[in-house]
Structures are given as C-alpha cells and as structure tokens.
Amino acid sequence: MDIETIQPGAASVCSGFGASIGGTAATILCCICAAPISPNPSNTCSSCLASTSDVTRGISTEATLHQCRGCGRWHQDAGKWIGCELESRELMALCLSNVSGLKKRSKNDTGGKVRLVDAAWVWTEPHSMRLKIRLTIQREVTMGGAILQQSFLVTFVVRNQQCLECQAAFRQGTWKSLVQVRQRVGHKRTFLYLEQLILKHGAHRGCLSIETFKDGMDFYFPDKGKANRFISFLEDVVPMKVKSSKKLIGTDDKSNVSNYKYTNLVEICTLCKDDLLFLPKKLARHIGNISRLVLVKNISNVINVIDPLTGQTGNIEGEAYWREPFRPVVTAARTRLTRYIVLGKDPVYLERNLSKRGVNRKQRAKLASIMAARESDLGTNDSHLEELSHLGYLMKSGDVCLGYDMSECQVVDDDAEEARAAGKFPSVVFVRKLYGGVATGEADAAKKRMFRLRRLDIKKGDEEEQKSSGRRGKKSKNKEAEMEIVDEEDFMQELEADREMRTRVNIYRPDNIAVSRESKDECGDGDEDDEDDQKITLDELLDNLVLNSKPDVQDDAAMQGGEVAALGADAQEGAVMEFVGEGERAVKDNIGYVGRDEALNMQAKDTAVPVVGNVWGKDFMKKDEKFS
Asked: Which of 248, 265, 268, 267 has its CA nearest to residue 257?
C-alpha cells in the first residue's frame, strides 16, 4: 500500500474516507486489480466491486400484470381490480408492488439493506403488451458498510384476464339481486326521464344487464349491496315503494351457509309531469289550502304541483300519496292535449290566492290572462277563449301552446265531473309552450332539434312477444315501435320547455349543428324574448357527443396520438376517448419518463457505482420503509 508523504508542518484535514493530507488526496491500491483508489471500507475499486457484487440479486426483472380487456382495470391482489391510466402514479405503485425483492426484508435476512432511489417509465411499443420501468436502487454490499447504486430495467408482461364483474356479465343466471322498476301507466316518459338521471349520476355502475318491458325495466346486479344502493338512488329521485323477496338457491349444512337470489319490486307512483289532478279536500288543505284542480309541475322524491290559475305551488310527500293513492283526472297524453294559438295577453296581479295568502312578487309577475284560439278553428270560425294561466309571462302573440280543453276532456273522477258540471273548472288549462320546429309543424322538427341525449345499453325483455310471428305479431311490433317514437318525442318536448327539468339531466350539442346557427336562433329581437326563461340556451349544452361516428375513427386517432389512457367501461360509455401523448401523464404525476430514442439504446443494467460517503444514516432508511 502506497501512501504519499506528508510535508512537515503542513496542516492535515481528514473527513471520511477521502482524506486530504497537505492538500493532496491519499490513495490506496485495490486489493484485486491493484489500481490506485480512494480509501473505502471494502478496499476495492468500483469496477471490481461491481463485478464481484450483484446489487440487483434477489430482485426480479420480469413480472406479469393482468388487465381486464372488458373494463380496462388492472388486477391488484385477492380479487381486487383497480382502474389505472397508463404512465400514472397508481399504475407505477401497482408495478412496484409486483417486483419481488423490493419489499422490506426480515431482520434475519443477510442479503443487505435495499433502498429504492428512483423509478421512471420507459417507452415501449403501443401494441407490444409490455410495460417497462427503470429502477435505481442502493444496496449495502459489505459488512463494513460499502454502498453501491445501480439502475436496471424491469419488464412487465400484460396478460388479459376477465374480472369477476365482466365474467358475470357473460354468463347466464349469475345475478344475485334483481330490481324490477314498474309504473302502471300507458306511456314510458317517466322511464325516459329516469334513464337520464341514471346516466348523469352513474347509478347503473355495477349492473350486469338492463332489460326493458312494456311497463318498466329490470336491473340485474351481482350482489345485494349494489342493488340496495340503486334502490336508495331511486328513493331520492322518484316517489316509490319497495317489496323485497328472496329465493333459496342452495345451502351448505356443514358450514351453515345459504345461497339466495333477491328480488326487489319498485313501484313508481302513477302521477307524471303535466298530469291534471283533482286533489282530495283533506290533501288540498294539508299542502297549503291549494286549489283542488292542479297540474303536476315535476316529479322528484316529492310530487310538485301548481295551481294553473293562480301560480300557487305545493308539495305532496310520497308517504301521503301511498297512504291514499289517487289517479289523475286527465293524463298528459298526446291525444288529450289540444294545440292553441296565442292571440294576446293581459298581465294579471293577484293580491291573494285561493288559500287567502298573499301572492309573492315572483308569482304575481308570471300570471296573465291569455286570449287564444284552437289551431284547428283558424280559418273556419272566429271562436276564441280567454283564461288565466301561470305561463302567461312566457306567451306572446303568435306562440303555440298545448292545453286541456276542459269542455271536451273526459274526466275519470266523479267529484271532478260534478265540479265541471257546476262551472267550477276553467274552459282551458294551458300546460306548456312549444318551441322550434314543433311549434311551426315542421315534419323534420326532431332532427333539427339543437340538443341530443345519451341512452343506456338496454335489451328488450318480452322474448315471447318478440318471437311471435304472423300478421298479428308484426302489427303489434310496429305499433310498439310507433308508441316508443311518440313517447320519446313527447319527452323531448317536455325537456325543451322546462329549464328546471334540464338542470337535472345532461344534454349535449351534436357536432353536426353549427354554433353560429344556434347562436343566431337563440338571440331575441325584443324585450319579450328575454322574459322567456324556459327556452333552451347554448350554456346548458355539453360538448363531445359524436353521433354516427365511424368505427375506424378511434383506431386512426390511436395510431396518431400514441398510447391511450385506460378508461373503465362506465367511463367510456357515451364519452369520447381521450388520447394522451407519450410521457404527458408521467410528467403530470412528476414521474420520470425515458423517451423512444433513449429507450432503444438503453442497457438492461447499468454499471454499479459506489455511493459518496458510504454511510446509510438513520434518516436514509426511514424515508422509504416500504421498499427498504
């Protein structure tokens, strides 16, 4: 061992192993190759130490990850599946947990302490079914405390494996809980509205399949808990009552475990939006002494009603309705509604309504006496009528609206018939105003409508009826298809004329309608247009709903945009696929990323180098106890 001489009287400063004596560093010879090196606990140079000691021993460089092709989730452990995007922090944590040798070692393990210093994503071919990360670790390789640092690649092979939910979706009879939603009415507008609420709140997540029937829908769930959560959602949006039952499928006497299938019958109240009601006297007094003749304004967990002559509102609780159910005297069917042309209006200010309470300023400003004529009477006679309406502030001369002609409508309640015979009913009850091409009677008004809706993936129920053949079966099938189209159009008209109803659902702007044209149509010329607060505006529409897109559009974009973020099936439904560039998500999560050019020239393992200082330190091991 050669040690340089020290000049007499010269000051010496020693710090650690790299001692400086008289301004000149002391060196020793490597015990293997005899090369001059700085002193270290192993007395070995870095190349000899790296050749004799493997820093990455015991750490796997290949592992397997399982991904569900159906929902895009990744398998974690013990049957748990999580959703992770490519290059995300969550996917990095999942990869590191599958690398053996990085976890905390036991006290009796003599392999040396290991600490993870850095982890970065490495570029791979988009369709290679491989994920690569570069790990940088430090390990104590000698008993004296020499520490080496080395970087190496870990490759993860992605295998396809169906998760439990996707497996159950492809098997017959795998459901554990069934929710049957029924409403005993002759239309399906309530279920169209309920479908939009389910889509907005994602209440159908976890549902295996959905089937539709003439009077309702069936929702199949893999377990009882998800079905109960769906029922809780229904309780918050519609007045309903539930009946539950269970059927024994099998039992194990040894372990005392039984297998059941649960069925929940959810019955929705028969009252729908725009139905005309004649309330019982007791119920009318209970909700504020309102008039007995009211309109259903909207349906939520309570029934909101409004007096069409005074604008007074009230709420009917679900418990009160189910205690004494009643039917509407006139249902809001297309055959019951009559089209009227507004000829003029006069504002009406009521000081007190029927309940002898003061009318607030907002309700007072909305009332008006409307002069209107039936659309069918124009050109044949000069008959017209004049009646109060809570929609008076929306109307102006030339508008088209729908209403109940009380002189010709047939009511189903005896008390209501007596009240009409006594002259206590108005001549007409205006229900809603029509907008756009529906008001002008255009044939393609539905196609020109400025908004669109998403739909659930629903299968037809009634298999026996679908399998029916012959002339009678074809006629009934065509009739049902026509009724569905009519119900959808009526629901769209209700949505178009009710701003409060639109706030509860998501409506979208299709890309085939120009914004400039919509903006031009929405702009009004006079002050009266500004008073119409129910008309749909551009601010209410959501973008990114592409209709009639070709199936190759997403594939072409994937070739141009690089790697695609892995989205779950629920997130992909009805949404546009989001394409993320290489390394963008990694930079967002503050994770290193090795690009394509550097990745092609990267070695599987770098040369190990000694750590400066050669000291672990107490704080050094406490930083990453998970991987130490």
From this structure: 248
